[in-house]
Amino acid sequence: MPWRVGRDLRHLYHAAHATLERSRTLLRPICLIAKPIHSTRAPWRPAVALKLKHSHTAVQSEETVEDLQLTPLHDLDVESVLLRWKRPKEVETVDPDTQPPPHILAVLEDVFKRYRTRLPTLEELRSSPATAELVTYLRIPHRPPALAQHFLNAREPRRALWIIRIAVQGGYSFSPKFYGRISEKLADMHKWRLIPGLTDVAREDLGYTTTGLLNWRLQALMESQHHFPLQDVLDLYAREHVRVSRLTYHLLIAMHLRNHDLTTALAVVRAMESAGLTVSPRTWAVILLNHRSLGLSPSAKAQALNALQTADAQTATTILNSLVQLLLDAHDMTGAIDVLSMASVPSAGHLSDHGVGTTQLDGANSDHALSSPRGVLINITTYNILLNYLARQGDLSRSLQTLEQMDGAAIVPNDATAAALVRLYYATDSPNDALHIVADALRKFPAAADLLPDLGFTASMPAKHPIYPNTAIPTVGLFNSLITGILRYSGLAALNIVLRIMRIVKVDANAATLAILMSHLNRREKSRPREMIRAVRALMSIGLPPTTRHLHVLMAALLREERAIAHPRGWTVGPVPEKTSLRPFATGNCFEPAAGVVFPRRLRYRTLMRPILQSLGDRGVRSDRVTFAMRIKHDAVVKCDLEMALTTFKTMVAAGIQPNEYHYGALIEGYAAVGDMRGAVDIMSKAIDAGARVTVKIHTMIIAGFARLGQPTEAVEAFRRMVGEGIRPDVPAIDAVVSAFFRAKAYRMARRALLQLWPQVAPISDELEKASLRQLAVAFRALHGVNTKVPERLSSQEQRMLRWKIRDILRRWKSAEGYSRDKAERAHRPARHRHVSLARTPEYTRAKRC
Known about the structure:
Layout: H1 2-18, H2 65-68, H3 78-83, H4 102-114, H5 122-127, H6 132-137, H7 143-153, H8 157-169, H9 176-188, H10 195-206, H11 211-223, H12 230-239, H13 246-258, H14 262-274, H15 281-289, H16 298-308, H17 313-329, H18 333-341, H19 380-393, H20 396-408, H21 415-427, H22 431-441, H23 446-449, H24 476-490, H25 495-504, H26 511-525, H27 529-541, H28 548-566, E1 586-587, E2 597-598, H29 605-618, H30 625-638, H31 642-654, H32 661-673, H33 677-689, H34 696-708, H35 712-724, H36 731-743, H37 747-757, H38 773-781, H39 796-828, H40 831-839, H41 842-849
Antiparallel strand pairs: 1-2
Helix pairs in contact: 1-26, 1-27, 7-8, 8-10, 9-10, 9-11, 10-11, 11-13, 13-14, 13-15, 15-16, 15-17, 16-17, 17-18, 17-19, 19-20, 19-21, 21-22, 21-24, 22-24, 24-26, 26-28, 27-28, 27-29, 28-30, 30-31, 30-32, 31-32, 32-33, 32-34, 33-34, 34-35, 34-36, 35-36, 35-39, 36-37, 37-39
C-alpha cells in the first residue's frame, strides 16, 4: 500500500537524519597526514536455548538480524577500560576567573542563532562589530580552553571544536596535553567523528604531531570502521617521526580482529615482538575483548586462562569478563559459571606461562582452566554481561537472582545496568518498570519526562522489580534499549516521541539506532528492501557512512525476497530435486563486505546497493560471521548449490571464524531443500559434535524436509527425537508435522495430529474442535510470534505426555497406512489373482463345505 510505504520511508529518513551528529566534519583517511605535526560447580542450571523466531514450516524460516549479529557491549568500554587503562578521574576544580562571562556567552548564542546551518569563519567574526569583542576574548590566555570546556560540559562538542579552531586561526596556541584531554572527552561522549578534525587542528597549531594524537586518530577511525594495513600505519608513524607505542600495536590488533582478519592481527603481534615489545597479559586482554567477531576457539581460551595467572588485578578482571562474554555468546552458561568461579576460589598458586609471549595460538595447555589467579574481581561489568544475556533469553527469575547477588556483593549499578534492565523488563512484559528507569534518567529534564505518559508510562503505578533510583543517565545505549522495546510494544507510532526526548536531552541517535529501526521494519512491517536502501543512501548523503549492521539488514531483506521466489510457501510445494536454474545472485570473493554476494539486477537492487558496498570496501571492511551465514544460505538455499555452500563454509573456518548454529542451519536447510535428508541429518550430527546449539529451528528444518518428501513416519520420528532432547516444539515445528500428513493426503491424520499437538503451544478453544483443517491451520499459524511465556525446555512430565501422543499418532498412522496399502494392492491386482484371493477367504471356504 503506497501510504504504508511512504510512512516507513519517512520514519527511516527521520532516523537517518537523527544519526547525523552536529558536526559535518567528514572522516579523513589516516594517510592524508603527510607532514610533521592513545565455584567449580555452576550455582545455576545451564542456560536454556535461545528461542528463535521463524516463519511457518513449509518454507524454512529466515533468521532475523538480531539472531545473527552480536549485541554491542555498552560497558566493556575499550578505550577507557582496556586500551588506555585510565586512572580514576580526579574531581576537576573550576577557577572562577576562567569562567566565560555572561556577555561573551550571550554573543555566542546570537552567533549560533544567526548561523544555524554552518558556523562562521574568523573573517566573518572580524567583519561584524557585534562579534569583534569575541575575537579579542579568544586571544586572552586561558580563556579559549575554559570556553571550549564549557561547551563540552554542556554536551555541545561541535561548538567546542569551533571555538578551538577559531582561537588557533586567531593566533592562540594550545598545548599537546590540552588536545589529549579534549580527545579523551570526545571519546567518552562517543563523538569519534570529531576526533580526526581535532587532530588536524592540533597539527596545524603545534606544527607537529605526537604519538598520543596519532593514536587517538587511529582509534577514532577504527571506531568508524576504517581499517588500514599494518605497513601503511607503521610508515605513517615513521614519516611523522613519532614512536610506535605498545598502544599503537594494541589498536592495530583490535582493528583487525574487529575486521575479522585473524591473519593480519597475528602479523601485528609478530611485528610488536620484533619491535622488542613482549606479548603481555594486557595484549591478551586486547585480543580476547575483540575476539567476539570470530568466536571463542579452544586455543584462544587456553591462552587467555594462562595469561590470567600473571596479569594484574585490572587486566585479569578484563580477561575474565571477556571470557564470560565469549562463552555466553556461545550460550555456554555452565562454562561461564566455571570461569566466574575462578574469582571466588582461593589461589592455587602460579602456573607456567606457556604461550604468553608467543604468537602461536594452538597447542596451549588448558589443564589449569579452573585455577584461580590472584586479584581477579567480579565487578559491575560482569553483572551487566550476565543481565544482558538473560535479557535476551527473557529469563526474569534468574535475572532477579543476579540482581540479588549484586546487592549482596555491595556492587553499585551504573548506567549500563540501567540499559540492561530496560531491555530485560521489556523482554519480560514489564514495560512500566522499564519506563520507571527511563523516568529516573530524565529526572533533570522535566520537559522530556512529560512525554513519557505518551509511551504508556504510569508514574502512580510503583515498579514491581528493582529499578535502582539515581543510577540511570541519558545515554544512547539506554535510548536504543528503549527504542527496541517500544517498537515491539507500540510499533512505529511511538518512535517519534522517543526521538523528541533524545533531542531535548541532547543525545544523538547513532548508526545502531537506525539499524534497530531497519530490523524492525524488515521483521515486522516487511518493508520493501528498496525503501531501506534509500534510507541508508540518505544517511550517506549527509556524511555518515554505512556500517555492517546496516548491510546485514539489507542483505536479510534481499535474501528473504529472493528465497521466496526460489522456494514458494505452502504445504503443497515440493522440494527442488536438482540445482535450480534460477540464479538471481552471482558470487564473488568471500572476504568482500557482502561475502561475495552480488545482488540481483531485478528492481535495480544491484545499482542501488553499489554505493553502500563501495563505501564499506573503500574503508577495508571485510565480511563477518553474519554475512558468511547469509552467503552460505544464499549458496545452499537460493541457488541449491551445496558444493559452493560447503566451500564457503570451509573458507570461513580456515579464516579463523568459528561456525555456530546459524552456519550449520544454513547447510541443513540447503540439504533439506533439495531433498537430501541423509546429508541434512549428517550436518546436524557434525554440528552437535562441534558443540553448536541444535535448536528447535534446526529440528524444524529436518522435520519439514521429510514433510516435503511426503514421508510422515520419518517426520514424526524426527519430531520425537527433538522431544527426546527436551526441546519444546513451537508453532513451525508442529506445523511441519501436520504438513507431512497433508502432503501424504492423509487429511484426517493431519487434523488429528494438529489437535493433539496444539496444547503444546496454547490452549485450544472449544469452537475450534469441530473446525475444518484449513480453519485450524489458519488459527494455529496465527499463534506464531505471540508472546507466550512458557519455558523453552520440556519438563520430565511434559516429555512423557508428549511421547505418548507421538506414539499414538504413529500407531494410528501406521495402521491407516497399512490399510491403505492393502487396499491399493487389491485394487491393482489382476482378475485371476483377485479370484484366488477370494477363494481363500473364510466365507468362501464355509460356503464350499456346505
